[in-house]
Amino acid sequence: MIKLNAKQLRTTPADLKKAKKIKRNPIYIILDNVLDTYNIGSIFRLADAVAAREVIICGESEIPPNTRIKKASINTTEWVTWRYEKTAREALEKLKKEVKDLKIVSVEQSEKSIPYTEAEWSFPLAVVVGNETSGVSKEVLKMSDLVVELPMFGVNISLNVMVSLGIVLYKILESLP
Predict the structure, then answer these.
(1) CATH numbers and ranges of domains, the chain
(2) Residue 128 has pLDDT above 70, yes or no
(3) Is the pLDDT of residue 6 over 70?
(4) Is residue 31 helix, strand or coil?
(5) Which member of 17, 70, 142, 176 has the greatest number of CB atoms within 10 A?
(6) pLDDT confidence band for 81 (50 / 70 / 90)
(7) What is d(CA 23, CA 17) in angstroms, rounded to the nearest whole number?
């Protein structure tokens, strides 16, 4: 296991040659109006960690270059493929035309949701996370093939959007062929 100090962890150099050689997983991350720039930056870091194919930022979300996104992403915005779309619905409609057999999974608490541990994952997969206050939009929930949530056992009823996405993505990775 590699042990890095705090400075090394925060200064990942942009190695675009290495990034281009990474085998990307058939996972697309959709940010449905995520507003906190530190969440956005952290999601870029997460996308790099799981070798996601693309991050699609939608709605009122800030986009790179942004100093807070850059700081939280530790430069991963330099090699993680990303794009901006006006709405998550539009992004998913385009993605479904581009990617054959795409399944849409929203991470959200709803009447349709099941525990993420009980989901059966198939690929390619678009994983949608929503706004920190209002969650995934209703129109995207209607488009979703699956809605998953994380069980909450304490007093608090939700987790941070990036934390929830991270837990779900690492569970999804267990199902990759």
Answers:
(1) 21-173 (3.40.1280.10)
(2) yes
(3) no
(4) strand
(5) 70
(6) very high
(7) 13
